[in-house]
Protein 1
Amino acid sequence: MTVRSSNLGYPRIGEKREWKRLLERFWSGQVEEDVFQEQMKALRLSYLKKQQLKGINLIPVNDFTLYDHVLDTAVMFGIVPDRFEHKGGEVSLQTYFEMARGTEESSAIEMTKWYNTNYHYLVPELEACSPSLVHNRPLSSYREAVQELGIEGKPVILGPISFVLLSKGYREHQLYDVIDQFLPCYQQILHELDKEGVKWVQMDEPSLTTSISKDVQRKVTEVYHALKKSAPNLKILLQTYFESVTHYEDVINLPVQGIGLDFVHDRGENFKAVTEKGFPKDKLLAAGVIDGRNIWRANLKEKRNLVKNLTSLIKKEKLIIQPSSSLLHVPVTVNSEAALPSLLKNALSFADQKLDEVTFLTNALHHEETMKKVFEESDDVIQKLNESPERRKEKVTINVDDVNNVKRKAAFNRRYELQKNKLDLPFLPTTTIGSFPQTKEIRKLRLEWRKGELDEKSYRQYIEKEIKKWIEIQEEIGLDVLVHGEFERTDMVEYFGEKLEGFQFTKFGWVQSYGSRCVKPPIIYGNVSFRKPMTVKETVYAQSLTNHPVKGMLTGPITIVNWSFVREDRPKVDICNQVALALRKEVEALEGNQIRIIQVDEPALREGLPLKKELQQRYLDEAVYAFKLTTSSVANETQIHTHMCYSEFEEIIQAIKDLDADVISIETSRSHGELIKAFEDSTYDNGIGLGVYDIHSPRVPHIEEMIGNIERPLQVLKSNLFWINPDCGLKTRGQAETIEALSVMVEAAKQIRKKHHITANK
């Protein structure tokens, strides 16, 4: 038997985002359900066929989704919150999308980050659930691949431990009981797969790389013994990723036939464990040696040596070569990037190229001489990029090292008093997070301008026209602090990357963020530095149109780095500080132009948090330093805001305090106010706005709902420091629903002010 190749999951969105466009056409009523399903099937099968042609031996099935794989798992078990009025049995497509997107009457289920990635999953609600297997999706996916393509697929299933740990609606002491509720469902899935003659199933348990307790690990062992009994002939590949496994010896002794380990993001710990503690002779090791999360070409010489070292510890026939995680987190193919500089393009590897690297390494174990040229080429390409001028500018590092003092000039209480006098804002000031709806016309004109089909003057006039229009709308609605709307920006990271040194951009390098929302992460390939002001022109123009304060809007250094594909030849913290120093100059430029409120958004701060608790404090300290490096040089009277997205904020509450922002806004509405508990348990003394309605859903909330979302935090937070704002930016919403929702929000603020006998007169 020879070494085999495998894949853990393939990008869903398509080379040109065909998946996204099909979804949105269906939602808008342009495509009937039967046509939608047929076209989705065609995409799904094309992905399987591509992997087959790449020579992958173990091809994943059931990794495809119409929205989110965690939501798929929940509906497979009939887990639908009562508010969606599901009558039992298999969940309809309509109900599936209502859970994901909400309805006029029912809020969508909560969304949060998938471990420490920028992918968002939908959080299953397990309150008083009675799970049952209403549709064996892995079996259906397996049958489809066999019948349509003759592919003996490897069904992928989110394992019972991780599924429950990723869910909500139970207390900590109920964890084992809830897992036991789902165990018969998983047993039935595996039994039916076994009966079908399926050879391998991939059971994803990424939670085994987090800091789980020894007690939970014992429950893992109990569960997998029960699963094995239900399908004695089925081979289970227990798959972990994103870090080293926490309880290595317990994991490798589970009653499964294969163990998948990440040898890229494990910090060397998985390899150390295999070397020092051994690996069972009767199990297969699925070695994740190709990076599933970054886009740089692998140094195949180094990877070959890693694989050779593994084969010195285990037999070749017991080894599987694969990516470190699902390829969901990278774009589809480099081949479409005709405009990239050749030096950079040659150094990139997207999903398709990563599959090539997997097969190269697999084949090299049997035919090393014939693959010699490929290994030398990868080494040469990486070396040339590392020696390029863009990576050898030392003055950036020197400048960063020169900045030692990152404290504001005065403590918060003194600053806030000065800001209150300067800004003259009312009790419970209202504002938005930054962006306003970007219409098809805006996107069309921006594309024409980028192509040179529209001159600079005409484009600028159009942007200023939109800014003026929305300044007037905000004043009419009655908002207290305004924004210019960000009509000139394609993306909150891409926009800044295009104006800083050290960044490069793809044309089709899209990845899924949530649902049909795709982002195109910049590539940080060189040293980062400031060129010239990036946001001053639009912000100053907006401020000239109104007497209300207008916020300057920036994306913070941690988010820019976490939402980019970052060079690997230097520590990530160095790159983050380079970005922070560049943004510091932009903050100073805004302040120098009399902009008195500057928002530095950090929606991705939490997602960079290491999975291992013992590594988290260092990351948080570095993140806080970078934020303060960006913001600390301003005068006391200048108010610094920041914004954060869906996260387990209780894990980073001290870091939030340490940022020392004058005002922080946090997304909370999808979690139905549960995140407020973090502030009930830990005092927060700076200004804060907890998002009072969900912008990811098209529904406009009722005023009673909005008032309720404001009243609860006022019970635990200082009302004189509380701000009222939506959950997030409004870029993806329509104009009418945006105006209506913001009008309801402002009216809710007025009613609460009236209740507290405080007027909003300025």
Protein 2
Amino acid sequence: MSTPKEKQKPKEVPQKSYSFDVPWEQLMDDGKFMTVFLSDVLENYVQQQRWYGGKSSSLKYIELQEYFRIQQREEVYYGLLLEVNFEEAFYQHYFLPIAFVSDESFAEKDRILPVTINGVAGFIIDAVNLEAFRRLVYERIITAEPNDTTRVRYHCSDTFDAPPYESSRFMGLEQSNTSIIINGASVIKFFRRIYADKNPDYEMSRFLSERKGFRNTPAYQGSLSIMDSDNVNITIALMQEMVPNDGDAWEFMLGELHKIFANLEYKGIAIEKLPPVELFQRLKIREVPAEIIDWAGLSVFTRLQKLAERTAEMHIALGSEFEDTSFTPERFNGDYEVWLKNRLLYMFQNRLNTVENNLHRLEGPALDLAEEFLERKNEIRKRFVKFDWTKLKGERLRVHGDYHLGQVLVHGDDFFLLDFEGEPESTIRDRKVKQPPLKDIAGMFRSFHYAIYATIFNNEGSYPYPKEALFQAGELLYRYFIGVFLETYVHLIQEHNINIGYSAERIFLLKYCMLEKAVYELGYEMNSRPHWAVIPLEGIRGIINDKN
């Protein structure tokens, strides 16, 4: 029996050239071509792409769900909606635009199929690699008619003063989408994995920048969508402002934390004598003990305040809509509770199975924590079940849904929030469910926790302290980070009458959402880098042990 990894290995497909006696504009209607194209050749190509999300599953076959033309005057490309079917009895949909090129020297690594069309030899390639295609999409967006009702729909924001096309280039390596920089000032993101609905990134981007004027997210400029055969609007591409930046907040935080941990030796700090603080205790900067400021510096806390402000402003914008029902705030109710518990208990069981099956890959503290996780599984499960909507007075909003330091750009002393697509494991419906805004805060707090541990792991030997002492210092610093962020966030949210519940409710929701996030993270770490499983496992234990 072959292993899943062996099953997933792309097949070696000889690059035989095929000939078709039809013009390019009629190629997709040619049955012979479709038989050849939807074969091992396409399967092999798709499985090698970074944006392909089925690498841990066994591909069965690929079907063409439907296709549409992306064209301008006589220039024609095809947009394909592919249905990838798996042995495990589920499927995913992907967007692949194709072009025909006859230049032998072009796109050598991106060829899908050698073909001869009407006597002209060339290659079928992913059209995103072709500058002419990128230019066409940009020009169709900026010249779009308002209220387009055709099958292929282009849209340009009224607030975008579009310049003519000059140049385009790839943004860089991405995992799940393909982004193109246009004129050095705009970004067109082609969604690769697609869903039978409007993409949340498109909805949130357009709502925040067009309807609410929220300035700290890349401004929405336009989009491309398709009405499929079931008359469902599917988002294919999103165009936004390109924000000049100094990198993302994850890299920024790693740099800050390295300096902070280096200060332990430089300043001769006795870790065991640092003043403790309760988890979730709100703190103004002036309330942070002098010993902590001396160790970590003032600037990291002022930057956390700014990030908290921008996060609060995002939620204020999302919580102040009373016309568009997809964005109006809602109370907690029984339907939400049932949805939440079913989803989380399923996820928790999945993680339990993963940990049990991979204990042999762990050692040291990670193994100890994993065994404790398994021993306390009933206690953790009860935490997820202990959600009583009748006791909650706050409101649910559309939220970011996958909020962490990597989703934030640093721009001078400010921050820009982006990528509103939601958690990769969630269905499109689940990503649009209104949640307590503290779910986003919990995601950011888990990201702080990750950054602290990543700094320790990535700089082994740089700090002359035992790893356990560094973990102790990191856990303490984490609590101060949370305290300063919470104080700024809650104050601003309440000032604008966004209802996130009373104090005990807020702490309950934060702990609940942070536990959910840490359990979610555990699946990735156990599968991808087991030695980092200590981070979510430590997070789970910290939440379970906290009695507040």
Protein 3
Amino acid sequence: MTDLLAPLLRTAAEVVLSRPALAGYGGDADRFVADHRTDLLDMLISSEELRRVSLDRLRVPGSQRTERDFAQLVLHPDPAVRAVAVRIAGAVTERASRNAADRRLRRLNDKNAELKERLRTANGRHRNALADVETFREAAREATERADLLDSELAATRRRLRDPKSMTSVLLALLQEEPPEPEGDPSTRDPHRPKPVERPPSPLEVAAKAAGIGPESLVKALQALVDPPKPSAAAVTVTRERDLRVVPLGGGTKIGGSCLLVEAGGTRVLIDAGLVPGDPSLPPPGIGQALEGPLHAVVVTHAHNDHCGYVPALADRLPDLRIIATPETTQLMPAMWADSVKIMRQRQRLASTWGTHVEPLYPREAITRATGGSEELAFGVPRKIGDLVVELFPAGHILGAAGVVVRAGDSTVVVTGDISGFRQHSVGGYAIPEAARYADLLVMESTCCAEDHQDRGDLVGALVRAVESVYAGGGRVLIPAFALGRAQELALIMRDRLPHVPVLLDGMAADIARSFETVTAGGPLPLSVFGDNVARARPGDLDEFTRGVVISTSGMLAGGPAFRWAAEILPDPKSALFLSGYQDEESPGKRLLDAVQGGAPQLILDDMGEERKIPLRARVEMMRLSAHADKRGLLDIADEVSARQVMLVHGLARRQADFREILRLRGHATTETGPWQAF
């Protein structure tokens, strides 16, 4: 019993309230007790009649014996007994009140905890809603950027359609493409077949026949439209001034920012004009020297931004600049340029929040000018540029990549660009042409000149087994990859070797994959990246895609969707992150590798100016599938070209020094990375 006096007081209240004078309480005994507890006790002690009536009522059948006995003690004639009973009742009541207060406090605490949990849930939903809003905003921004890119490409295409020189360049490239080998090629022909299959006429032969002239005459006529002959007075040049001169302006003893100035007579041409990796606001270091005089053309070896990213800035400054590349490179470059503009704008917005100003290297309109001024040049077809003649040859590496043969008079320079000799899923290896052999100078990339790569098949097999292991364990694999080339190669490997594993392509890697399909459609080797188990990532996949492979940009974790995926995947012990390519010393990818090797529990990354601490529980490894020739591959190229001298570019100085010594021991004369002139 919580209050020993409660039954007696309630009974007394009922007796008192039976009086007509207290009818205002409406017979509510409990309320009367609450309002007049002390008064009721005094009345019971002073009024014998009230004690008698109250005790009689407590003795009715059904009343609790304890209640009756305690009431008799409280109403005992002896004042001392009554006082003790009242004190006992007060103590019991006080304890009961404390217990009741404790129960109320516990109920309030429970209610408070429940409200806090509801608040946490509401805050979580709010954060998720904000994240969804940001995801959809990002998707909208990407859609807008893709639309802008398509608008730029459309405007450039219209401009090219109106430009006879540009359209003639495209026509020349199409006519001079090598036709695919017939099904009955002599090397595979059935010897019992009575009649051999004849090679179909090439597009050039068909066009020449329709025009009623020979193929060579048709090519000369079209080339004259692309590069009109100079007046005879300007053609008088001293022979020694036609000797080739070569000056590396970027990417000489560093990787990226590639730019090579080639001069002869009055003609000045750049081979590549790339941006410095990791910073799209840095042009080739020596580009100012190229701009000190007239610049007639840029020959682009391939569409990676560290080789072509500065071209729009040149086109913006030099409206008549010719931009020459393979058809595939010509079609892939605008997307790479647009990505550079996007990154420049992001950095400009970030800088403005800190009160500083960063000016982009070129506006979006420059992409339209550069795209419209591009000339397609097929492999193996000479193209005259003033006093120079250039010819492109397959370099492997990525789709559309080319090496360049440059001739002036009796001098020849061969520039490999980025080059590889092994077959990939997306492109074959290099093919050195006759025009390149015994050149005066071989300018050779040296990215991997200190490495001996494992067999390509073994590397692919190791990657496939690692991905299969993580997938079987219920995890996700993130492979940060360069948007152009590496990402598509990885997707094709996954589609071919792991058709049961879901694969997402995210960010710019997905856009370029679609471009690969468009560029190669109708050609001899059409590529199909999407389909079956390979799909484009969608908003929401970051939370919903819980098992499979994600291939996303950027390859060095310097931003892009790969950064967001890494923040989700790295804390998961069931998952993995496999880096697939070169990591610059200052890149987040290199810092991740160093942190894992050093046993660090977390990685601190910069997320648009805000530091994020990411726990490191996932498996992290380098699974490098290089698209560059290694030491042995580069030696094979040097042997095949057999140039009078070899210059190394696009590599690290200390490694180049060691490799030069190897070349010398192999019988090749070398020259330091720097200005060179034929003699």
Protein 4
Amino acid sequence: MRMRRWMIATSVMGLCGAMPALAQKDAAPQARCTALASGAIAGLAGDAAVDSAVAHPAAAPLPAHCEVIGHIARRTGSDGQPYEIRYHLRLPFDWNRRFFFQGGGGSDGVLGDALGNLQGEQSEVALSRGFAVVSQDSGHDNTRNDRPEHGGPTSFGWDYTARRNYAFASLGRVTATAKALLATFYGGPPQYSYFVGCSKGGQEGMAMAEHFPDDFDGIMANAPGFSLPRAALAQLWDTKAFLRLAQSDKRFDANGLPLLNASFSNADLGLISGAVLKACDALDGARDGIVSAVGQCTTARVHPELARLTCSGAKNASCLSGGQLEAFEQVMGGPKNSQGHAIYTDWMWDAGIGGDWGSGTFTGWRAWKIGTAGAAANDGRNVMLGGTALPTMFQSPPVAVANTPAALIAYARGADMDAAQAGIYRTTSDFPVSAWDLMAARSADRSAFQRHGGRMIVAQGVADPVFSLNDTLDWWRALDRADHGHAADFARVFPVPGMNHCRGGPGTTSFDAFTALQNWVEKGQAPQSIRATAPKGTPWPGRTRPLCAYPATARYDGHGDLGSAASFSCVAPGKKGQAS
């Protein structure tokens, strides 16, 4: 069907004599590249422009290509700030007729390298495979639109249009612009289009499927932040819990502020990881340091092991204080309002929470939740990024909080969970759509994307400290119900035991899910499992495991090398064994 679309599109262009002059085959690609900056681009909207187009010779590992930078919708915002959507496009001279949109991350505001991150800790990039690649800043600039007194890099949240562009609107504009440039440069549309991202990029992938379902054939939406405002409330909840613990233990910085990173040492987090392994490691049939029985490691299993770690006297390196255990279990249970109702969701217990594993220290979990061990001031991302995002991007109206540790700690201390929750659903005259309705992209209705023939893969770390895998699995189950038990026909989730946010952690965190997506889209080969490898820095470099499509989990066959994926099968719930 997609090949037919390509043939029809190119045939119509040929019949109508509409092939852009810049794409004539007798013109050198270098000349066609330079012409993009000055020539008329068919299909390019009037408020879109090319600012520069530079031809680059091949320089391993990158191929010869045309690098285009441009802007869309230049304007002055309601907050008096200058805004525009900037895009970055690379067009390989030897094109494979495929388009790759590279998702952003965090608060965006960065143009991106447009190389085509394949995710899964892959060293190769899409541009090297012959893809045309685009990235974008989602409609604001972290340097130009940085007002320290209004949240710094998240201060664009004071302008409604900038919020909307960040949420999803810029994605459609950049896609249309990039495809117009592809048609001009190559003489026809892409045969296949892919969107790939993680974190905010994962949210963007979900937003693409929801708002622009016909634009992409394959979407990889890893660790999707499709519940961004609620996840920001979870970050506030976590910060408040760790603040109380640090203050109770009298752990302060030089300015007298509670020091979150001092609430748990790496050794303390290692004790918690050890308790998780004692409770759950063998559930997959092998004690191997990886909890592959995703979803089976419950609080009911882990709590008794944690209770055994409680100090009987003064705190020491071999035990945890009662306050530490209370705060940790409060965080893992997820945020609640004053009525005790869940605001977001709870978190999965996994060995990737942290600790020194001998071959390396995994700090992704603590870097987000509490900050760098031994840092003299609060630097946790929940504070420094989440602390600005909630009041400026996700509250209506926004709240002025300076982008400094002192101001952010003061905000977290004084913030009321009920009021903050209400703020993400509130509308005003300046913000006619709530932050939740703008930012959320977790609809269980993906019927339009499915009708288009789209395929989606979601890979996420079980130990993700930013967006809970439980939220992702809740979404997939709702999707499956809406599709009468057939969601796996077009969307599959692959949990990664041990992995933190998008990468890293004590697990097999290196994997090529993009090739699996491409084979699904182009060859109809639906992936049951994806082979993953433990990289350097883990206790088992070179170890392989299958990542299984949920709800199946990897189980040891009872014989064979524990370091080999061949010794494990993806087993569906309630079944003793199933070939992967």
